[in-house]
Amino acid sequence: MRTRQIRLSGLFFAILLAISGTVELPAIADEAEGPVQSRLDELKEQSESQVPADLLEAGRKGTEELMASGILERAHKTGDAMQAFTLEDAHGNSVSSKQLLSEGPR
After folding, report:
1. What is the C-alpha separation between 88 and 104, in angstroms, rounded?
2. Is 61 strand, coil or helix?
3. Residue 42: what pLDDT?
4. In total, how many domains does the chain have?
5. Which of 18, 45, 102, 105 has the most CB atoms less than 10 A away?
């Protein structure tokens, strides 16, 4: 489930960028004019009509600052290799990404 949470938070960030009007989302699985893009367009229209103008402007400004920082260029892309890492689990045991990958899906 952790992988799903990461993917969802990435999608949430992309939606925020799209809603702010700073970034156009790329076609998702050849559905650029399909249900996903339509729903994103609806969300953008709703936010523009329901969110106070000063908050929309603050969101746009924050997004522009993030874009100017180069964060998207430095972010990992689909298919990029992940560096190995080790973290502690809830019980204080070390868990390495290398070990988890070698065990395969559960």
Report:
1. 19
2. helix
3. 85
4. 1
5. 18
Yes or no: say if 74 and 82 are a contact pair by the CB < 8 Å rule: no
Q: Which residue in 71, 15, 63, 23 sits closest to 43, CA to CA?
A: 15
**Alpha carbon distance 8, 31 (integer Å):** 18
> pLDDT tens-digit profile of 5-46?
444 455 555 666 665 555 555 544 444 567 888 888 888 888
Cα 47 to Cα 53: distance, rounded to the nearest angstrom: 10
Contacts from 65-70 at CB under 8 Å and sequence distance 24+? 67/22, 67/23
Q: In terms of pLDDT, which residue wins out, 94 or 50?
A: 94
Which amino acid appears at position 93 of this protein?
A: N
HSE-CB of 69 using CA atoms within 13 angstroms: 10
Report the interhelical angle of 2-20 vs 35-50 (nearest 10°).
60
- Structural domain range at position 27: 2-78
Give me the pLDDT at residue 95, please. Answer: 92
Q: What's this model's pTM, rounded to 2 decimal places? A: 0.39
